[in-house]
Amino acid sequence: MFREYIFSASSALALSFASLLPIQAKACGDDAPMRDVNVDVAQTSYRVINFVPKGWKLYDKVDGDLNGDGRNDSALVIQKNDPIGMVQNPDGLGSDEYDANPRILIIVFADEKGGYRRVGMNDVIIPDHDSPTISDPYADMSIANGKLFLRLEFFASAGSWTMFNKEFNLRWDGANMNLIGYDMHMVHRASGAVADVSANFLTGKIIISEGNIENEAEKSKVRQMKKPHKYRLEDIENGFQFEPDSNLYSL
Q1: Which residues, 6 or more positions from 99, have their beta carbon under 8 angstroms from its beta carbon?
Q2: 8-state DSSP, 83
Q3: Which helix (H) or strand (E) holds 149?
Q4: In whole angstroms, what separates CA 192 from the centre of its chain?
Q5: pLDDT tens digit sequence for 47-75
Q6: Positive or negative CA dihedral for 134, 136, 137, 139?
Q7: Tens digits of per-residue pLDDT, 157-202?
Q8: For tag attachment on the chain, is the N or C end more exposed, with fewer CB atoms within 10 Å?
Q9: Residue 94, phi-psi category: left (phi > 0), alpha (psi -120 to 50), beta (remainder)
Q10: Domain residue spans in the chain?
Q11: How far apart are CA 119 and CA 41, in angstroms?
């Protein structure tokens, strides 16, 4: 499956980032299977493992209180367990084999009766590992201070000099898991250029910094989002392509 990650590059500020933005980070896994996440996930259960449907497997899980009731809630990453998704690449660049099966992020809350209910789910925020020349996009997740932190990363052994990591910070508002913070750190391995973007969706402020790994001093500017957004977990699309504001690089 061929994939391009395209970021805005229409302004003078964007041009200053041009050397490090992943304009064309090619995914070379043309043999990766078509994406299929048509699956029924339980709404409630007395066991967390029962939120993993037949034909899927538990990929990762973290526990912690996400709604302030003192009980341990859970965030799960599940992955389709389909042999077709195990792509062989014995003669090409990168890994000899990689798992291109899709993953789903699921949030479940513990209740007073000892059971669990599903309160959030997203089947696209974690990009598929669809190329032998890129690292697994999923890094890890954690729960701290009532918030869920999901981390993604991009590194290509061929096709791009750019590497980056992203962190999504989600919090329960009584009805939904909402995105309240977003951070991205990018490095261009050839030029040494670095860029950081930090967005606060509660204040609508974005801090954009740029510099070089040879010079620790970074130039930063703070700007207000053109139109403040409220993203539920379900609203977030491909995590690699996500930008906190449609006019991120405008002056």
Answers
A1: 79, 85, 86, 87, 129
A2: G
A3: strand 147-154
A4: 24
A5: 999 999 999 999 999 999 999 999 999 99
A6: negative
A7: 988 889 999 999 999 999 999 999 999 999 998 888 999 999 999 9
A8: C
A9: left
A10: 12-235
A11: 12
